Fold each of these.
Amino acid sequence: GQMGLGGNALVTRLSKALADEDDAAAAELVSTSFFALTGIGAGVGLLLMTLTWGADWRVVFNATNAVSAIELNLAVWWSLFLFLALFPNTVIDAVFVAHHEGYLANGWSLGANLLSFAGLIYAVSTKASLPWLVVAVFGARVIGGLGAALSLFLRRPTLLPSWRRFSRGRLRSLSGLGGRYLVAQLTSMGMFQSQPFIIIQILGPGAVGIFGVTQRLISLPLLVVQSLANAHVAAYAAASAKGEGKWLKGTLVRNTVQAAIGTAISVTLIALVARPVIRLWAGPELVPGMGLVVFMALYVFVNAGVTHASSLLYAVERVGRQALYGLVNAVLTVGLGVVFTQRWGLAGLAGAMLVSFLLVNPIAQWRELRAIGINFRRESRP
């Protein structure tokens, strides 16, 4: 996601530097963000390793003896390593967006997700071990990130991160805003990282593949909407700085309506063919129940409907409450996920995602938009 020190915080500040044609400031911002995120990733990794070293993960996840303790340990550590390795990659996406080249970041992201989806199907269909399953899914995203970085810095070598361009002053200017973006990112990513562990503990490791394949297939329209919304962040930030409230409101309404219509059509079509497609590609053992398909499709539709509003709020630096709402959403999703999964299986987990999102995000974003002067009520005429 394009949040934290390497995401929207960097996009807004970098956009200003590019508008001022201040190449030195732009290079300092990129290098500072890159090394700061690398340090954060390393620090988080060391802290988690220290706190969990020697933990019996089979007990933590309530895994049966059929799951090798060594394999489970390797899977956990690979998940942690690959997750943290993606931290600095958000800098690359931010630079693309600030240069109004978000389509390039979107292309690499889409390619990485398709590669991840293919890796998941291959790992499950070949009955690969749990560590290889993790590497196949998350390793594809790391490969996509490296490809994006290579394509960016070959074209813009002056922005290649260098320790000599690291600036404490830039770090201070980014850290407050970026820290709040990072909290929002961690709550969002933590929510989705928790889903496989909920499934393993309640339904067993075999159900992880069913949920993962279904989620990735049905979420493809949402990835497109998120990519388009992220590409508008720089434009939203520039318009806000110029006081163009009418343009912001009109663009937000147009983008949201287009996203809702496009997602409704595409996710309905995908949901109708999801079960036979998964049966053909991944095998009958990974075919989901219709409940999981329906609730996941509804979740994708609702999420797509508020994605552009979220990007606009991040662009105008309304971050603190967004992070708080994300935390509430994450806690609700995990709590309801445990209860609903015990009662209704995988469909219950998707239902928990939908209910949590509906309870928090639409109302919260409506309030935030009103706070920045964007009101959708029809004005009364004299």
Amino acid sequence: MDGYSYLTFDQRRKIEALYSDGERVVDIAAKIGRSVAAIYEELKRGYTGEFDRNKRPVYSADLAQQTTQENIRRRGNRRAANQ
């Protein structure tokens, strides 16, 4: 399973800032160093149910972090949930 890693909370904050500034997902992926698919999955994970002034879904890094930790706890992997 080498090569897999979770996004850090700092990376989620950076995604939130860039996305709310109107950056394209492709550009965010390049700046964060992750795949475009990973950014899209992250945007779904942190979707608040609202839309911004440009009709884009609102992303919350806090919500995404909370969801990730709950998912990890639910499957029993305690080490990754405490990071």
Amino acid sequence: MAELKRNMIELVVNPQEVAEGGEPEVKKYWTPAFIPFTKVREAMELASELEKGDTDDFGKSVDKLVDFVTDVYGNQFTKDELYNGIHAPTAIETLQEQIMFIAQGQQSQSTKNFLEKKN
């Protein structure tokens, strides 16, 4: 168990400045070294809920997803920081990658690339 998998998410920490034409400052956040197995069940339930694609509850599902990701990352960032710091065109895909990491251990390509450079 010495080699525990981790994942990361990148958020823009100065969205207001970027909206005004400034350069984005991106911060990488890492999952804790240990994530309890109970999170797999939560991830699977969320994935199932999102697959159903009920548009009436889409906002609630996204809120649950954001709450889940914030919790998994040990509240290193707030729900608002996640909503405002994630790039809209890839937000859902990025959040779904977080679920897949928890549920199946799949790391995003950017995480794999970063870890390869680090080693």
Amino acid sequence: PGETQLETDRRLLAERVKILKSRLEAAVKQREQGRKARERSALPAIALVGYTNAGKSTLFNALARSDVYAADQLFATLDPTVRRVDAFNFGAVTVADTVGFVRDLPHELVAAFKSTLTEAREADLLLHVIDGADPLMPEHIAQVEAVLTEIGAGEIPQIQVINKIDVSGAQPGVEVLAGRIRARVYLSAATGAGVDGLRTAIEAEFGAQRVTRRLRLAYADAGLRSRLISLGAIRAEEDVEGEGWDIDVDLPRRLALQLASLPGHQGEIVRARLLSSAEVD
């Protein structure tokens, strides 16, 4: 009794903020669990970054054959979406779609963006999606680079994806570059023109050096076999009755090195029997 409408609204808003904070904390924990599971699988991680409305979600759908919401508006994607993609010759990767960057937004201070920025910061490769028909393209590229540096992702290898060539009139193609920016790919995520060139550039990044070896694993080493299967690294397999499996392994050297860092017997097998005498292409 005696409570004014203003006081009532203030109390209801405070309760609403408390509920939203609780949901946000639960979402962050859930994403962290998913991220740790992906790290255990040793799959390479790709994150799409770029200025808002550059076409990241449309490109994500083209790569992952997914149906993530995409629209011609600011912040059409606010929640990071991660998919496993098996469309590459070196095996599987995870691809993450992230929130679009904008100028003067303190990303590191906005709680709702923390998780999606972590996807970018912990990626093995960034796809910097750029609106090729945007008259402010150079300014927006610089802004995205500034944010990447600010969140600790400035040194991660990157492929620049010049999107919307169907609007700009540019031709699909791939420019191979040296340094942190590995390549520049011209494509249209909406029409699919040039997307195969992007896949080729990604394969060049992750499949440059490969480790191939015929390896015998005991039944007790089923955990390592499962990891190799999840990476798409087993090209052929024969069951050895009473002993285990003879498997033909083919995977990028960088993934073999990741497996070699596994604790215990699994890492020891990779170091002693896969890397020590394996063929490297």
